Amino acid sequence: MSDIKTLSFEEAMRELEATVGKLETGEATLEESIKLYERGAALRAHCEARLREAEERVEKITLAANGQPTGTEPAEGL
User: What keywords is this UniProt entry annotated with (predicted)?
Assistant: First the structure.
């Protein structure tokens, strides 16, 4: 298993979906289920952090009258 901190949002989501799928089958032993649950919780936290980071970076580009970008301002509602 790769280090969760190095995963992109998409990679972490794919692994989280696969982990949930494994847990839903009920075929894992109790110990395996606990490890899967712990990994899934860490993946979920990582995905949430990556989303927060992305939301903080979303900015609205402000344009001058001639259409040239003049800067950025925080996007509203995030």
Answer: Cytoplasm, Exonuclease, Hydrolase, Nuclease
